[in-house]
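Our preliminary data section would be incomplete without showing what the modeling component actually yields. Below, a chain of 873 amino acids is followed by its predicted structure, encoded as C-alpha cells that our downstream tools consume directly.
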Amino acid sequence: MKVKRQAFFLCSFQAVLIALMVGTAIGQTNFWAPTNGPSAGDVRALLINSRGEVFAGTNGGVFHSTNEGNTWTPVNTGLTNLNVNALMIYANEDIFAGTVGSGVFRLKNNDIQWEKLNTGMADTVLALAFDPSRRLIFAGTGNRGVLRSTDNGNSWALINNGLSDKNVRALAINDSGHVFAGTFFPVTGLGALGRIFRSTDNGNSWKQALLTQNIVAALAINSAGDIFAGTFGLFVDTRGVLRSTNNGDVNSWKGIKSGLLNSNTYSLAITQSGVVFAGTKPSGVFLLPNNDTTWTPVNAGLTNKDVQTLAINANNGRIFAGTLGGGVFRGEGIRIAHTPSSLGQSGREFSVQATITAIFNIANIQLNYRRGGDPSFISVVMATSGSSYQATIPANAVTSRGIEYFIVATDQKGLIARLPTSGYFSVQAQVSDETRVTPQPNGSEQTAYRLISVPLDLDNKNAKAVLEDDLGRYDDTKWRFSELLANQRYAEISDATTIIPGKSFWLLVKDAGKVIDTGAGKSNITSRPYAIPLHSGWNFVGNPLNFPIPVKNISLKSGKPIDLRIYNGSWNDPSTNPVSAFVPFEGYAAFNELSSVDTLLVNPDLSASSTSFSKQAASRAESYLWSIRILAQCQEARDVDNFAAISSGATGGLDAWDRPEPPVIGEYVSVSFPHRDWESHSPGFCLDTRPEPTYGEIWEFEVTTNIRDKVNLTFEGLEQAPNEFEIWVIDEVLQLSQNLRESNRYAVAGSGPDHPKRLKLVTGRHDFVAGKLAEVKHIPTTHELSQNFPNPFNPATTIRYGLPKAERVTLKVYTLLGEEVLTMINDELKTAGYHAAIWDGRNQNGRQVASGMYIYRLRAGSVVMTRKMALVQ
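Predicted structure:
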C-alpha cells in the first residue's frame, strides 16, 4: 500500500512508513529532540530524498544533512536568492527550490551547483508539487496562480483557466492525477479568505472545491484518497484541519477540530498507516490516528512550537519539524532497543529479545523471521514482560542459509516502529560438516572438469584439509585442483591454497562416486550485498550463500554488464543459454574488462519487494538480426559458444554485444575472434557482433588446440543470413576456400596457441565475396600435390593439392611396403583449384597407426602423384 502524493505551501511530502530508531532505549520521555541546526533563522521547507538525506529551505538558503540533522552544510552555490519557501524532489532525485521573487532553481542529483529555471518563471513560489506518473511539475505562486512544467522545469506556462485566486500556498496531487490548489484572496475588513480548487485535466482547467473563512496553507492526501486541508487566519472558530472523503467535492468537507486548540495549521504529513501530523502555531505538533476525529498533542521536547513544515524520512520513519527561529527537530513515538547475536547454531532454536519504550501504549510487537534466501517472512507475536519482549525462531529455520529477521512495534495511536529501519538483521549460523558438494563427474578428459565453490565461511579454509579426507592425498594422476591467478595462469593446489566464499576452483576427479564434505563453517551475512573483488581479466567466482541467487540480483560495481559463464564439459553459450541463477557449490567465470579491480555485488535479498540491480546481459539471440555459430570439436573437447553476429545495436568496435573468450582447461579446443587492436584484457572473443552490412562482412577467427588431432568445424545458422548473401570460409595460408551454403563442415589440423590456425568467415553479396575469393582462389596450371603440413606430425596433418580443371579424385595413404592404410577421398568430383584433406593418423578401422614413414598418393584423372610423410608418436 502506498501513500498518496501530497504537497503544501512549504514543501511537497512523500508519505512513508513511520517509526523506528536504532539505538539504546533509556526510557522515553520526549517525542522530539533538537537537531544541530540549520544555522539560518526560519525553516520554511523540508525535503528528504531516497537516501535519507535531509534538505532544509530557510530564509538563508538551503542546508543539507546526511546524518539526520546531526550536522548541516549549506548548499547555496548558484542559488542567487536565498529566501527559500518550497522544496520538491523530481523522479531522478533532482531537487527544486521555490524562492521569494526569483522563481525556481534546480539542483541536479549529487551536484553542488544550483541552476536557475527562469523561462516563463520569475515569481514568488510558495508551493511545488510533482506528478511522477506524468512527469509534470506544478508551482503555486504568490501572485500569478499556478504554473506547469512538462520538461523537468526548463520551461513554465501559466495554467489558470478557472483559477480565480492567484495566491496559491498549497498543492497536492492524488493517484488519479487530480491536482488540488489551496489559495487565499484578500477581503476588506476580513483580511483574507481561502479556497480549494481542483483540476482533473493536469491543470488545464480548475473548479472550486471549497470556500473557507481562512487561508489554505497545507494540503495532504492519505492512502485512501482522503484530502486534508490545513488553514490559518482571523477566524478562530474555523482554524485547523478539514477533511474530504469524496475527492474534494464541495459538500464533502468536514472540520476536524477536537483537540486541535483552534490553532493555525501550517503543515501536514501523513504516514503509511494513516496517522496525520499537523504542524501549528503556536501549539506545536498534533497527531490524528487513522480514521479518528480527535487530535493528540505530541510536543514533549519541542521547545519551539511555531512549526512551519513537516517531513518524514522514508528510510527510517523519523519525523522532522521545521520551526520559525528554532531550527529543525527530530521526532519519533516508539523506540526499539535490540542487539542481535553474532552467531546461531544450525538446527537449534534462536532467541530474540528487545526492549520497547514509547510515548503511547504499545498495541503489539512482532518478530518477522525467515531462512536466508526465502522470499517472505513468518510473523510471531513477541511475549512481553514489562518493557522487554521475547520470541523464538524455531530450529528448522536455523540452517546453513543463515537467519534473517526484523521487529515491528505498533502503538495504540497507529504509530509504527521497525528495527532495523530498513532491510533486516542477518545472523550467521554455525554448521558442522553436513553440507556437501554433489558427486563430482569422473574421468580424465576435458569434459570431466568442473568449477566448484563453497557457500560457507569455513573454519579451516585450507584446500587440502577440505579435500584430502574425501579424495585421498593429493595425486595429480587421481585428482587435480587449481585456481586461476590474476596473471591468468593456473596454480595447482598447495599447502597455501585456501577456499574462501565467492571464489571457485577447477576440480578433476578420476574415480567415480566421490562426495566432498566442506567441514565446519558459518553461513555468510545476508543483510547487505556480498562483495567479491575481481582482478582484471577472467575470475572464477562462486555463490557465497547457500541458496540460489537470480542473476538479476548480481551486478558489477562499475556498472558494466555482467555475464556469468558456467562449464559443463564446455562453456555455456551466453547468447542462447545464459546463466539464469548463481547456484551454491557451482563455479562460474566472470570477466572484468577494467584495468583496475572491479567488484561483483551479490544481493541476497530475495523478497518480492526487494530491488534487483543487475545490468547483466540477457539472452541476446532474439536481438540478433542474424548470426552464424561456429562449433569446434577435437576428440572429446568442444567449444560451442562462438558467434559471428549482426545486430542493429552493435557499433563494430568493442561494445556490450561482444563477449570475451573464456579460459581453457586440460585438453581443449578453442575458437575465438582475435581483436588485439581493441583495448581489452582478452585477446580473443567468442561473440563478435557487427552492425548490419550493406554489401558484406568479414570475421577473422582462430582455432587452437593442445590436442594433436584434427579439429572439425561446423557452421550453424546459415539460413538466418539474407538469402542474397553468400557465405564462405577462407584459408589464406593454404589458398583454400569453401562455400558453406553447399557444405557447412570444415576440418583443420590442430594448431597450438603459439601457431593458431587463422581462417576468415566471409559473408555478403556476390560481388563482395567474389572480390575476397579472388585473393585466394587461384587455379594452378598443372596438377600439384604439396608436402603435408606439419611434417613430421602427431597425429594430424594437412594434405593440400591443386587441380587445373575439374576431375575425379582419389587420395590414399600407404605404408612403405605398399599396404593401404586409409582411403581419404574415393573417386570424388572436385572443382578446379586448391583443395585440402586432413589425416588424423588413423586407419580404415579408426585405430591409431604406429609411428613411421607413410606414403600418400593422389590420383586426379590420369595423373598420379605421391609424397612421403612422417608420423611421430
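Helices lie at 463-471, 766-773. The first strand starts at residue 5 and ends at 7. Preliminary results of this kind motivate Aim 1 of the renewal.
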